[in-house]
Design a protein that fits this description.
The protein has 2 domains: 15-54 and 126-247, Protein-Tyrosine Phosphatase, Chain A (Alpha-Beta Complex); 58-122, no CATH class. Helix content is 34%, strand content 16%. The chain has 10 helices and 9 strands. A 6-stranded mixed sheet has the order 1-7-2-6-8-9, sandwiched between helices. Helix 1 (34-43) runs parallel beside helix 6 and helix 7 packs across helix 8. The radius of gyration is 17 Å and the shape is globular. Residues 1-17 have low confidence and may be disordered.
């Protein structure tokens, strides 16, 4: 029987800061959080799924959708060393060191700029999480847009005895509702597929975002107007992509899993 998440207060003031507890770190399917969660997952030598919905995961996904060569890096200084590459990203919301903001809609609206080009990308949480996950058997990029693709692949790994951890990256050790919900939705979908919950109590719990109007709750907490509004709406399109990005430790690039 898989242990249940602790029930959380879901009032307006608490949703953004609810946490995923480390007590789930010993499960073959688990949710973790922040860089600590990434390191714990890497130590298990299993599958680490980086979930950074607004916006890193979906920017990298959008780049692969236009067949760009994508190199995630940990620091802006490292990005500067890639001569001839398009530099995309931010450092604590500062975009001055990069050619372009890490906006998925920028790629969607201007595919010719990025299609089949070489792009180095750095974000405050997402790409740094990838680097911290080195040591994992595989490092995947997950979001709402490729959620089912991620879960289907992870099902194969679980059935081979490989542990899976969905890591909600948050923002500088602040829980973000979109990452927490994304990681939990992958977790609950996967335990249902593999039959790890032997009754319906866990799957039917209020902790499960599938049982709530998850998109409206996210919008209520993080408005979709303003600078990032279109990015956020795009990033919440469920199962809009069948691409599954994997970080290749050998080449330092993202590749598509067939």
């Amino acid at each position: 029987m898989v242990k249940k998440f602790e029930k959380h207060d879901i009032s307006r003031d608490s949703v953004v800061t609810q946490t995923i507890l480390n007590e789930y770190s010993k499960l073959p399917i688990s949710c973790r959080q922040f860089e600590e969660g990434v390191r714990e997952s890497a130590n298990e030598k299993g599958i680490t799924v980086i979930v950074d919905n607004f916006r890193a995961s979906n920017t990298m996904l959008a780049l692969l959708e236009v067949d760009a060569e994508v190199v995630p890096v940990e620091t802006s200084e490292e990005a500067e060393r890639y001569d001839g590459f398009i530099k995309m990203g931010e450092e604590k919301r500062d975009f001055s060191k990069f050619d372009y903001d890490n906006s998925p809609m920028l790629i969607v609206d201007n595919p010719d700029i990025f299609a089949k080009k070489s792009v180095v990308i750095r974000t405050t949480n997402g790409t740094r999480g990838i680097k911290k996950a080195i040591g994992s058997k595989e490092i995947l990029i997950g979001s709402f847009r490729n959620l089912t693709r991620v879960v289907n692949y992870c099902e194969e790994q679980i059935r081979e005895g490989i542990p899976v951890s969905f890591v909600a990256m948050g923002s500088l050790h602040i829980s973000r509702i979109e990452d927490v919900y994304g990681a939990k939705m992958m977790y609950y979908k996967l335990i249902k597929k593999v039959g790890f919950s032997d009754d319906n109590e866990e799957l039917n719990s209020d902790d499960n975002p599938w049982n709530r109007d998850w998109k409206s709750e996210i919008i209520d907490q993080i408005p979709v107007n303003g600078l990032d509004g279109s990015d956020r709406m795009y990033s919440m399109e469920l199962d809009a992509s069948d691409i599954l990005p994997k970080y290749s430790i050998k080449t330092g690039k993202l590749v598509k899993i067939d």
